[in-house]
Specification:
This protein is of the alpha/beta class. Helices cover 31% and strands 20% of the residues. The protein has a seven-stranded mixed β-sheet, sandwiched between helices. Strand 7 (212-213) and strand 8 (217-219) form a beta hairpin. The relative contact order is 0.12.
């Protein structure tokens, strides 16, 4: 089997993956710092561990989708599950007003620290929590996500987002998070969730397939299980309903080979309502 860059990256211990990225982008980060090309609300490229592409542009596009598909309003209280290094929080600072509350949490401490220092220090209604939850893509240990309880009061949020979070979680973990999400959303609250979903007729794209079959879910890598995870659509619908949520829509992404012009994003977007 040919060793791909992705396989090589996943073969490294979690801490080494962060170091590898910092080293890879170090020349460009130094150049942007010296020339003043990066503002104070944009992290160095080597610190961005959540997805690829244009960091600022992709965050802005996500917020536009929240408004279009979920009805996000400037006064809404927002929960950002897997807040990373501020990809979504940064554009939200220009949309949410002072009456709104933003809460984000993440399993990677350095991302939370950066967000506190650069976003929370300027926008005091934006708060970030570091929560050491286990995930073999980002951490070597931590509390099991399958029993983790969200540290927020019931019915606190009008809107929640888990962007490229459930694509890195296993079935029992997703089940638990959907239950926790149902608790913290207000009645009528909406959540924007992204997945890789499949059915009987799914044609797996070459180079982005999920060969390891576990029944209701499939893995891209059988060693780093949280690397990329796909879920059977019919079972995902059952989990949503079981946890007291209503499925509004599924917008399929272009990861599955659909024309980009027909899709909102690379991943499948699942909109649920409490």
């Amino acid at each position: 089997m040919k060793l791909t860059a992705r396989k090589l990256f996943y073969s490294l211990p979690p801490a080494w993956r962060f170091t590898a990225r910092r080293l890879y982008f170090m020349p460009l980060d130094l150049w942007e710092k010296m020339t003043g090309q990066r503002d104070g609300l944009t992290p160095p490229r080597g610190m961005i561990y959540t997805g690829g592409g244009d960091f600022r542009r992709s965050g802005e596009q996500s917020v536009e989708l929240f408004k279009k598909l979920c009805g996000l309003q400037p006064h809404h209280n927002v929960l950002d599950i897997g807040s990373g290094i501020g990809r979504i929080a940064i554009p939200l600072t220009r949309f949410l007003n002072e009456k709104a509350i933003y809460e984000g949490f993440d399993v990677v401490e350095k991302g939370v620290v950066w967000c506190r220092d650069h976003i929370g220090s300027r926008f005091h209604n934006f708060r970030f929590k570091y929560l050491p939850i286990g995930n073999d893509l980002y951490r070597e240990n931590g509390q099991p996500a399958s029993i983790f309880q969200f540290p927020y009061a019931d019915s606190s949020f009008d809107f929640a987002v888990a962007n490229s979070v459930f694509t890195h979680m296993l079935l029992d973990e997703v089940d638990n998070y959907l239950g926790e999400l149902s608790k913290v959303l207000k009645p009528g609250g909406v959540a924007y969730l992204t997945f890789f979903v499949f059915g009987e007729k799914t044609i797996w794209p070459k180079g982005f397939d999920f060969p390891h079959d576990y029944g209701h879910y499939r893995l891209m890598d059988d060693v780093v299980k949280s690397a990329n995870v796909a879920f059977e659509e019919s079972h995902l619908r059952e989990l949503v309903s079981k946890n007291g949520l209503k499925l509004r829509q599924i917008h399929y992404g272009f990861w599955r080979g659909l024309p980009k012009s027909e899709c909102f994003d690379f991943q499948d977007i699942v909109i649920v309502e409490r």
